[in-house]
Amino acid sequence: MKANSPWVFLPLGGFVLLAIVLASGLGRDPQELPSALVGKPVPSFSLPSLLTEETFTEESLTGRWQLLNVWATWCPTCHVEHPYLLTLAAQGVPITGLNYKDELPAARDYLANMGNPFTHVIVDSDGQLGLDLGVYGAPETFLINPQGEIVLRHAGDLNERVWREKFQPLLPAAKPVTAQGEGV
Amino acid sequence: MAAEIGHLSLWLALAAALCLSIFPLVGVYRGINAWQWYARPLAWVQWLAMTVAMVALGYSFYINDFTVSYVANHSNSALPLGYRISAIWGGHEGSLLLWGWLLASWAAMVGWLSRSVPLEMVSRVLAVMGMIAVGFLLFMLLTSNPFDRTLPWFPLDGADLNPLLQDPGLIVHPPMLYMGYVGFSVAFAFAVAGLLAGNLDPAWARWARPWTTVAWCFLTVGIALGSWWAYYELGWGGWWFWDPVENASLMPWLAGTALIHSLAVSEKRNLFRAWTVLLAIITFSMSLLGTFLVRSGVLTSVHAFANDPTRGAFILGFLVVVAGGALTLFAVRASALRSDGGFKPLSREAFLLGNNLLLLTAMAVVLVGTIAPLFFEWMDLKISIRSPYFNGFFVPLTFVLILLLVPGVFSNWKRQDGNTLIRRIALLVPAAAIAGWFAARIPEPSPWQGVLAIMLSLYLILAHGDDVLRRAQAYNVGLAAGLRKLGRSYWGMVTAHCGLAVMVAGITLVSFHEVERDVRMAPGDEVQLGDYRFVFDSLDEYRGPNFDSTRGHFQVFWKEEQVALLHPEKRTYHASRQVMTEAAIDAGFWRDLYVAMGEPLKGDNAWAVRIYFKPGIRWIWLGALIMALGGALALSDKRYRRQKFASTQTGAGQ
């Protein structure tokens, strides 16, 4: 190291940059992530189904209150969350799955083995819809009203407490609109 | 009452830490000997106060004092006593208290074991550690007091400790990890003290080195424990997830590993002085950054504590003061640390420099991958970074690291004759390649990366075996006597490097030869996995102290011979209603058999069952333990045992 070499300031400069990036993340809670899309309709899309021959569009997400759950087999937290999704589904809460950047055979096996809480599963292999929705990682869960507008976005796992504290207060009645009988 | 005593002790500790960070330093600059002398007693007072606080919190857990909100949130009257005690560090506030207590303990130990270090240096080092303690105590007292009361409306029973943390592995994992994190504060304090003094001779490196090695050993064991815990407790058989919090522990480990090696150069050759100081600062800053990432709520993680922006702002501010301050001091003073004496491009110094650059590159890869989500957010991009990114960098970096490690061990300080080096390696490479090629055939044909990794592992082990024999023979007293003459620190290096080889072999085996099967099974069903047959015998239910459990009974046969009985469970914890998977594992040196209950399926008692065959997975943690053992061996070297003569020792065999 030469005397008075400007290099000695390099670590300090690098650290200042790092601190700025960290500070920019501070006000933000990744569990909340107030998506710019809250109050806006779901972006338009046209994507295949995981388990049937159907094609889904943004129209498929209208007509009733429902959850849109972003999941994948590579996501450890999704495994943790899965039993609770099954519980919700058993209570009659309609949940549409968005299989995000996943391998399809693995995803089908996963649902066959672990149980399927979803009324439909939309396949988003290249993550385009996820990108439009501002998905940050999996799992994420969106609450969508009958007009097909996003009411709430929750990043991280869905559990009893989150459901009681964040989702239920936003629903019109104590019990959400019942599923219209179509199972997969 | 205990909570108030604990709270008061924290303020007392803060007062001691404040005095510790001011008086000894003033004493040094004003030349007041008595004020310098106060450094050690103040460190001990601080330790005593923190110990009282720890005991007070432990006592509150012991008597189930649910008027203390931390106890109410992390314990339950039905929780077994062992877990009630380990619940001290089961949440944010309590784990901070553990951090603070360990910091005070390290400071007290430094005060106690530094008789041979000049008083001026001890005063500076303890003062820097006192400043760090001030920051942590303020953080605790202002934003995260573990002794806050819930009065007047306190709950009748507690919310229970997170079931994931109700596990023997988790009793020891955080203390080990924190011992490592906090231990690096000693190296940091020595670095800053050296910069303040403007004097970093080889003695400086000799004082700082054993402390750094101890911290590194603890961190190594702590990370391995965490990985082991994730493997058996999370229920899907992975051992590393590149989760932000895992990364937070890996970054100081990588920097700390670089630091250990660079300290060796600074001690033996009085070179790399500025670089070593910088590494010491980076290593501890990474420990603090880890704390920031876990507690600020900036990143999502399975480990994340309650997210709170005020806490995040405080730690970030603290990080800026500590790391920013130290780096500024470095920028001002580093020019004074010109290294005298040089080395040739082919020498042990050069290879160790390569080692340092590779380890720091690896650390940068983890750092970028971990905070990239923030960065992308800034640029309004939504990109998720997952294991392919980390593995894509880590595998080649490790390969190059191992390739360069061996010539580094073979080389002399100062300069190494190229021809001799090439002759030694020329024999080794084909030997390792042939042995590795055959070894990699044994389980089943591997992809080339797997074969290459096994070859590299054997290359490491053969090279060290060769080196041990050569050095022992070089004493010319016969092999057995020669082996005894080799120093402990040399044995430590050999052991730690072999630990790396074992770990790489384990990672390779499990990555390329594991078999994972998710199947639907009802009692009576069986599944064949290679040579192993898993039979699901029956299902029953039982009641634990604070949970209900559904338990499966499996028999495992290997070619008609029963080799294991496994009892995986699905537990529902009463207080939190959380459902936990308790995997059943038959652990073995060569392979693990792993059964976990997934979800109950429709139909007669059918379950989704995860059945895994994991060859070599134990070697990953075994390798880490061997590495830590290597560190411990190096610490037991005689030059640390007889400190009075330390200044004249140069260390045999290095």
Automatic annotation (TrEMBL), chain A:
Lineage: superkingdom: Bacteria
GO terms under biological process: cytochrome complex assembly
Cellular localisation: Cell inner membrane
SUPFAM superfamilies: Thioredoxin-like
Matches recorded under Gene3D superfamilies: Glutaredoxin
The entry's keywords: Cytochrome c-type biogenesis, Disulfide bond, Redox-active center
Pfam families: Redoxin (PF08534)
Gene Ontology CC annotation, any one: plasma membrane
InterPro entries given in the database record: Periplasmic_diS_OxRdtase_DsbE, Redoxin, Thioredoxin-like_sf, Thioredoxin_CS, Thioredoxin_domain, Thioredoxin_ResA/DsbE_sf
Any GO MF annotation of the entry: disulfide oxidoreductase activity
Domain Thioredoxin, first and last residues per copy: 36-172
Topology versus the membrane: Single-pass membrane protein
Family recorded in the similarity comment: Belongs to the thioredoxin family. DsbE subfamily.
PANTHER family hit by this protein: THIOL:DISULFIDE INTERCHANGE PROTEIN DSBE
The protein's name in its UniProt record: Thiol:disulfide interchange protein DsbE
UniProtKB/TrEMBL annotation, chain B:
Matches recorded under InterPro entries: CcmF_C, Cyt_c_assembly, Cyt_c_biogenesis, Cyt_c_biogenesis_CcmF
Top-level taxon: Bacteria
Residues annotated as transmembrane: 12-32, 44-63, 96-113, 125-143, 178-198, 210-230, 250-267, 274-294, 314-336, 357-376, 388-413, 425-442, 448-469, 490-512, 616-635
Domain named Cytochrome c assembly protein: residues: 89-296
Subcellular location: Cell inner membrane
UniProt domain Cytochrome c-type biogenesis protein CcmF C-terminal: residue ranges: 316-638
Residue ranges the record marks as coiled coil: none
GO MF term set: heme binding; heme transmembrane transporter activity
Keyword DNA damage: no
Primary location: membrane
Biological process, per Gene Ontology: cytochrome complex assembly
Membrane topology: Multi-pass membrane protein
Record carries keyword Cell membrane: yes
Cellular component GO terms, alphabetical: plasma membrane
Keyword field: Cell inner membrane, Cell membrane, Cytochrome c-type biogenesis, Membrane, Transmembrane, Transmembrane helix
Family: Belongs to the CcmF/CycK/Ccl1/NrfE/CcsA family.
Record function comment: Required for the biogenesis of c-type cytochromes. Possible subunit of a heme lyase.
Protein name per UniProt: Cytochrome c-type biogenesis protein CcmF
Organism field: Alcanivorax nanhaiticus
